[in-house]
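Q: Given only this backbone (321 positions), what sequence would you predict?
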């Protein structure tokens, strides 16, 4: 069995690795042999500490990811988010690999945004409005800066102090960030990204300009909501997995009669993406397990130089048969 620790996966991951792995996963998700199983939402003994189990099987990979969100970690100075991926050895029904992936998960989620935005946003899009200043927000900006030349990053946060600190951190990385109010940011944006835990819309639909692309990255449970539902009839709607998006994603708040397109179908050119410069496009990322499985496979491949072919372990790592 292969075991890759948090430190090892964090050292191996890159934005290009994540982009490629997630792109392949989103395409794999539309294949006839792909199955994504219902998401399990649970909590620890303290109900505010939550975990999610997402599992899937594709043509070559099967397994699951357990992601946790423990806000009580703040008191211990530890990250709120953590993640672990299990890949099955399908020839024996055993666990073939365990990949710890707290940081990996941030790259994976942002990569889904980057893949969808690259496919749907106007090529000349350069002004980003970002809602959120938490764990995931920086991953989102850095991933989008890889696929579009961002000339302005307008950050909308609830806390002025946290927003200022977040903006300063982005500037230190060479990004043209500034704090902004919601309406001004939305009215100026070519791309809008929401990376929050919101349960009600973050802005008004009539603030959104024609030609804008929007990615909702935070809605992954019943009751979560980042976007105004009256925006949807004006837009074309895309997502990672339609049947999951309408259950726990942003499109649980959409009219069920409105058409949803899996982004994998756009990537494979089975369905059209953006069709005009004036069109508004919306992508909902509720997060699918195939993304995690493909990320784990890519990390295993990236660390294979020390693989022991006989035992299929990684030498120097904590690995056991």
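A: Predicted residues:
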């Amino acid at each position: 069995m292969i075991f890759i620790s948090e430190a090892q996966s964090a050292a191996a991951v890159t934005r290009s690795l994540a982009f490629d792995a997630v792109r392949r996963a989103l395409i794999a998700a539309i294949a006839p042999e792909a199955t994504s199983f219902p998401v399990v939402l649970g909590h620890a003994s303290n109900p505010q500490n939550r975990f999610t189990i997402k599992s899937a099987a594709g043509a070559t990979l099967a397994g699951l990811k357990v992601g946790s969100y423990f806000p009580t970690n703040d008191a211990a100075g530890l990250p709120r988010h953590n993640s672990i991926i299990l890949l099955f050895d399908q020839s024996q029904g055993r666990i073939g690999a365990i990949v710890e992936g707290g940081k990996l998960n941030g790259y994976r989620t942002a990569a889904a945004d980057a893949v969808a935005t690259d496919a749907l946003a106007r090529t000349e899009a350069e002004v980003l409005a970002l809602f959120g200043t938490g764990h995931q927000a920086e991953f989102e900006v850095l991933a989008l800066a890889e696929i579009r030349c961002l000339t302005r990053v307008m950050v909308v946060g609830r806390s002025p102090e946290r927003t200022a600190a977040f903006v300063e951190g982005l500037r230190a990385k060479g990004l043209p960030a500034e704090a902004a109010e919601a309406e001004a940011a939305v009215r100026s944006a070519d791309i809008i990204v929401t990376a929050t835990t919101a349960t009600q819309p973050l802005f008004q639909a009539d603030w959104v300009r024609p030609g804008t692309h929007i990615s909702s990255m935070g809605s992954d449970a019943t009751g979560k909501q980042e976007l105004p539902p009256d925006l949807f009839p004006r837009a074309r709607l895309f997502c990672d997995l339609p049947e999951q998006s309408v259950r726990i994603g942003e499109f649980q708040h959409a009219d069920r009669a409105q058409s949803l397109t899996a982004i994998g179908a756009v990537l494979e050119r089975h369905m059209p993406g953006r069709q005009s410069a004036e069109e508004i496009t919306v992508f909902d990322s509720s997060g699918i397990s195939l993304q995690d499985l493909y990320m784990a496979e890519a990390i295993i491949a990236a660390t294979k130089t020390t693989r022991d072919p006989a035992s299929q372990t990684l030498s120097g790592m904590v690995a056991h048969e």
